[in-house]
Structure formats: C-alpha cells, structure tokens
Amino acid sequence: MAKLAASQNSTSPPPTTIIATPTPTVSLSGSGVANPTAFTTVLTLDVEGLWDLFVGPVSTAAVNTTVSATPIPTNELIPPPGLYYSSFPSGQQIPMASKNESWKFPAGFWWGVASAAYQVEGAAKAEGRGPSIWDVLLHRVTGYTVANQTGDVADNQYYLYKQDIARIAALGVKTYSFSISWSRVFPFGNGPVNELALAHYDDVINTCIEYGVEPSVTLYHWDLPLNLQNTYGGWLGPQIIDDFVAYAKVVFGRYGNKVSRWFTVNEPIVFCETYPVPDNYFTNTSIPKVQQPYWCGHHVLLAHANAYHLAKSMGINGTVSFKTNGGYKIPLTNSSEDAIAVQRAWDFNEGWFANPTFINGDYPQYLKEFVSGFLPEFTDDEKSMMNGTADIFAHDAYTSQFYMAPDSGISACTSNTSHPLYPTCANTTYSYTSADGGWNVGPAADPLSPWLHKATDWVTLFLHYIQDTWHPSGGIAVTEFGFAEPFEVLKTIKADILFDPIRSSYYRDYMEAILIAISEGVKVVGCLAWSILDNLEWSSGYQDKFGVQYVNFTTQERSYKASFFEYVNAFKVYGTDPVTPHYVSS
Ligand code: PNW
Fold first, then answer.
1. CB contact at 8 A, 348 and 366
2. Would you say the CB of residue 325 lies under 6 angstroms from ligand 1?
3. Rounded Cα–Cα distance for residues 45 and 532 (Å)
4. What's residue 51's pLDDT?
C-alpha cells in the first residue's frame, strides 16, 4: 500500500471496497448458469491497487523532493521592447481609447495568475495521492489525448512550487490561484484523510504568504477521485454532495483564514459536459446520456451551496464562490429567432448555475423547460438554501461568439431530440455575416483551442451584461482569461517563443476593456490570467500553450514571456495600489 499517513481521527486507513463488473474469465459449464455476464465480484483495493488496476505505471520526475527558491536575477525582470502600435480605428468595434484619463483599478483590486492541480503538479502517485478520472482518461482511454501525454510529471510543481511562487512574487503579482487535488487529500474521495497532502498544501499556502502573494484556492478543478466515479458515478450520484462537503470541511478547517478567496468548483458547465464519460472505462450508469450533464449540475449546485454555508458556519472570512465560464453571446443578426437563440444559450450556460445562485434558487426558463422532464424540482428549502451562495460573480471569460437560430429554426430543434444542437438549440459561429464582411470576431488562437478567439472588444459589454443580469453584490471577478498563441509549440528558439505578440495584445486589450467597464460603473474586483506557466492543457497535452511563462519540459526551466510584462504593466500604469516586487536578487 502506498505511504498514506492518517489524520488524527483515523489511525490506520481502511482500504476501500469497490464493486467491479468484469467479464467472467472462468468458463462455466453444467447447470445453474443463466446469465454469466451479470456476475459481480467485490474487490478490496488499497491506493496502490487502484492505480494498478485502473491506470497502470506512471512516469516520475528526476526531481522528487521539494526544492528551495533562489532570488530572481534582476536581468530577468527587464521588460521587452514595445510589441505593436494601436491600429488606426478602422475595425468594426472600436474601443473607446479617448477615455483613458479616467481609467483606474480601484484600491484593493486583486490580480494575479492561475493554475490547476492536475495541470501543473505532476507527482502523480507521490505521498499517497489516489488516482482521479483524469489519470484514467489520459492513460487508458483510446483517442482521448491528442499526443499521448499525461499529467504524471507536468510542471513538477508539487516539488517546484517555491520557485514558482518566487518567480511571480518577483514581478509583483498579488495573487496566486491554484487548486487542491481532492484525491491527494482523500485518496478514495471519501474515508481516510492523507496528512501528507495536507502538510504539502500548508507549505504552498505559507510560501505564498511569505513571498507577499495572496493564495486563492479552488477545491475542485475537474480531478474527480476515481473511486467516487466508480462507486456511484461521481457527480451523477447524490452521494457526491456529502463527500464534497466533507472534503471542503477538512480543507476549510486546515487553512481557514489564510486564504483570501475560495472557489468551490471550477467551470461546472465544462466538467458536467464531460458526462457521459467514455464507455467501458468506468462503472456504467443507467442515466440517459443526454440527461447526464444536468444531473451533474444539479448535484454541483447543492454541493456548492452546502459548502458555502459550511464555510460561513466555520467563520471563514475569505470570499466563497464557484467559477463559471463562457463568453459574451452576440446575436448574429437582429432577427427575433437569433434573439431567442442567444437567450437559450445564456440559459443553458451561465444561467444554469448563475440563476439558482444569484437570482431565485432555480433554473432559468429555457433550461427549466428541458430539465423538468427528468430532474427533481428544487424544493423551496433547497431554493432558499442555494440563493445567495456566491460572494462574487467569478467568471472565466476568455472569448465571445456569435449565436443564431439553427438553420431548421428553433422549434424544429426543440421538438427533435436527435437534432445535433438539441437541447440548447442555439447555433454558433466565430464570424460576422458575409453582409458584415465575414471576418472572424478576432484572431484565432492555436488550432488546438478552436473555441478561442481574441474577442476583447466585447469584454466591456459582457461585464455590463453580468452586472445587469445577475447583480452580484460583491462584484465581478474575471477568474480566468488567457490565450493560446497559435503554433507556439512549433517554435524552437527560446527567444522567439518568449515574444508572443497575439497573447500580449490580448492581455493589453483585455485590461483596457476591464478599465473601460470600471470607468462606466461596473464593479470589477479582480482578475486572474490563465496561466502562471505552460501546463497540461487536458486532452491537448503540452502542445497547446496558455502560459505567461514558458516551460522547458525537459529541464523544467521557466522563463517569462513578453505577455506577462504586458499584463503586469496594466497595474503599474493604472493601479491604485503599488506593484511591489518581492524576492529579487540585489
Ligand atoms: C478553462 N470553452 O477551461 C479551464 O479552467 C482550464 O483548466 C483550461 O486550461 C483553460 O480554460 C484553457 O482552456 C475552458 O470552450 C475550456 O469556452 C473550454 C472553454 C472555456 C474554458
């Protein structure tokens, strides 16, 4: 069994019991065998057994003990020469550049960089971590990864976090937002607590504070403990609510008020849409595929709201929210059908989680029409328990898209369950109509992120829309935004990689859009660039790069990209609070 230290209340962790349904290998003959494929067996597995059965061998890094930080040399902190000049105002959307004298990030505006455990940590099996569904998806599921890459080693941040925190402190970054790996803390998702994992995150949080960087923590960034998927279908089962809250309780209890901002779950729209999980790798479920994302969402809402109330009852003084995601939805034309398509898209995306939390404890109209056919109605108690359970509107707002009715019309789609756009029944495009010139909304990101375009001209309007629709009393934070520089993976000269013009213009123009929104009265309270460094972009592996720092994955050396300086510069020029570098060598 892997080294697994027990918490105070459990001296020796019991092994988990999982039910597996393998095809029988014994050939049966004679009487009494009516249906051999219905046979089940109970396997008792420890953490190592879970790895062996469901994942197989994992790679390890050359460095596998915690490395101390060294001060960042001042010559690494010199910004690049100017990258580009504003174009003459000929575009279809012209940012209001004339207002810049009145731009200001207010005092207390928090800004920083973000990551997620499975994307950066590596150390897959270290110190008792149990497998998550992503270990299986990337190790075992044929066709799930574009380049057969896994998070086994990633950025090795499990051991290199001190230097990673020092490097952002040296640029004066205020906040580091990272996630905790649930299956490190609870290797089986529930049951025994792994003290080694808790001690690790103690040091990550304390190192942030020591270097003048505020920690922001996400409890769940997609890395579901495998055992929970296998025992009750993960987010498809109501049991997840209690297990998530029990996990939250341990983490809140341990790190309490050292963390300024808590996020319960990251982007439930995205992770609930990973259901149905691929056939034959996880325990089967009888829930129809089309319903699965919405059962997941239902349990997420209840798990989040319970965790929120728990945090408040424990006296946690940081903000508590979940992170949702999506772009501004631009009607392609001014037809009434396109207007309905846009509203359907809001209802099936942001509204799915934001309406129950910020408006009335219930789903928005178009979504409700669909899910009321199978989901239980929220009770009045559940509605009032959920309503008001986010201290800020935390939104991952990378891009924008045009929306329009399906070619067949909306009602032909809503009445046809096999329509490819069912149940949302809103079509999308990245391009203006040909009558409007047919241009893309903005330059495309790397082809491995086909959903992402630089659409920063729409960000101001989007922030207004969020404020006017969901009225978040604690304001709005853009908790992820960033850009995958096209074809960056093909560059071989480090100096070429570090000069990233489209990503830099993305950050420059995005900050401008936030400043305009603030100047127009939108309460934007913070923002987090994705990502602190190049990392595992899920099924795109290490080919699709979002880092504001380059990582050489052979040596694990990190280097600042030009875009990082562009981002930080916005706060030097427009910040009320000073940008104070820490941990720079003299
Ligand atoms: C976010 N979309 O995911 C995630 O939180 C990160 O883990 C991820 O690395 C990052 O964005 C970059 O992809 C998203 O289709 C995935 O709109 C897809 C979308 C948005 C965000």
1. yes
2. yes
3. 37
4. 97
Atom number of ligand 1 nearest to Cα 451 = 15
569 CA from centroid of ligand 1 (Å): 25
Closest ligand 1 atom to 266 CA: 5
* Residues 437-448 pLDDT 10s: 899 999 999 999
Tokens of 205: 């949080």
pLDDT digits 0-9 by tens, 294-304: 999 999 999 99
Please write down the HEC assignment for all residues of 257-287: HHCCEEEEEECHHHHHCCCCCCCCCCCCCCC
Return the pLDDT at 38: 65
Question: With bands split at pLDDT 50, 70 and 90, how would you rate the model's confidence at 34?
Answer: low
Catalytic residue, from 121, 350, 480, 566: name it: 480
**Does 270 sit in the ligand 1 pocket, CB within 6 Å?**
yes
263 lines ligand 1 (CB under 6 A): no
**Separation CA 113–CA 295 (nearest Å):** 32
3-class state of residue 243 by DSSP: helix
For residues 523-534, give the mean pLDDT: 99
Which residue in this structure is represented by tokens 């060294």?
Answer: 70
Give the distance between the most distant pair of CA atoms in the chain.
89
pLDDT score for 241: 98
474 C-alpha to ligand 1 centroid (Å) = 24
Which amino acid, 29? S
**Separation of 266 CA from ligand 1 center, angstroms?**
10
Give which of 264, 240, 224 is closest to 357, Cα–Cα.
Answer: 264
If one residue of 273, 396, 454 were mutated to test the ligand 1 pocket, choosing by the most ligand atoms within 8 A of its CB, it would be: 396
Q: Which atom of ligand 1 is nearest to the CA of 530?
A: 10
CA of 139 to the centre of ligand 1 (A): 21
Tell me the per-residue pLDDT of 63-93, one tens digit each, with 9 for 90 and over.
999 999 999 999 999 888 776 666 555 455 5
What CA–CA distance (Å, rounded) separates 372 from 370? 6
Catalytic member of 267, 350, 485, 512 = 267
Q: Are 116 and 24 in contact (CB under 8 A)?
A: no
Query: 488 or 97: whose pLDDT is higher?
Result: 488
Told to judge if 480 belongs to the known catalytic residues of this protein, a careful annotator would answer yes
**267 within ligand 1 shell (Cβ under 6 A):** yes
**What is the distance between the alpha carbons of residues 445 and 106, in angstroms, rounded to a whole number?**
31
Q: Quick: pLDDT tens for 433-479.
A: 999 889 999 999 999 999 999 999 999 999 999 999 999 999 999 99
Using one digit for the tens of pLDDT, what is the confidence trace for 257-298?
999 999 999 999 999 999 999 999 998 899 999 999 999 999
Asked if residue 546 has its Cβ within 6 Å of ligand 1, the reply is yes
Query: How many angstroms does the Cα of residue 308 sit away from the middle of ligand 1?
Result: 24
What H or E segment, with its residue span, contains residue 301?
helix 292-313
Q: What per-residue confidence (pLDDT) applies to 135?
A: 98
566 is an active site residue: no
Q: Which residues contact 24 (CB under 8 A, 6 or more apart)?
A: 36, 37, 39
Instruction: Provide the pLDDT confidence category of residue 252 given band limits of 50, 70 and 90.
Output: very high
CB 566 within 8 A of CB 156: no
